[in-house]
Design a protein that fits this description.
58% of the residues lie in helices and 6% in strands. By secondary structure, the protein is mainly α. Among the domains are: 17-44; 47-116, Winged helix-like DNA-binding domain superfamily/Winged helix DNA-binding domain (Arc Repressor Mutant, subunit A). It starts with 15 loop residues before the first helix and ends in a 13-residue tail after the last helix. Keywords: DNA-binding. One of its GO terms (molecular function) is DNA-binding transcription factor activity. Residues 1-151 form the HTH marR-type domain. Pfam families: MarR.
Length: 166
Amino acid sequence: MANTKPALSPANAALDFLYDRPGFIVRRAHQICMSMFAESCAGLDITPTQFGIMTIVKHCPGIDQISVARLLGHDRSTTMLVVRLLAKRGILDKTSVEEDKRKNALSLTPAGQTLWTQCDTVLTELKHTLAEPFSPGEREAFIYLLNKFNAAFNDRARTTLEGTDS
């Protein structure tokens, strides 16, 4: 297997202790993904959290904010703030739920649908770019292992990621 770690000078070889830590590797991969997301979506004025919320609302119209937070693995207050911002921008529509006036049913506005489609096009291309270093089998294994890791430690996170069956 080829060495894929950064080349280190002999004086810095002790950094293998750092570079071999899963947390360091995952954090660095996250930095790279977020940087590439920002670059890809530069003209769209959208964040990964905003796109995640928009995607859930697109596929589950009428969903409430608490359910969105659970499906994204975000805390309620962050989700509420982002939903409020998207509504203020005219991207999301919030409608009071008849059975519980404290809840809002969320849906994408026409402007939100348009923005989501633009983002989806750009981010589908980014998904392929991020897969380029891998063979098809490696990509499948990479995604499988990340999902396995997340499932194994989901309950250790500050906010858990809950599926649609919860």
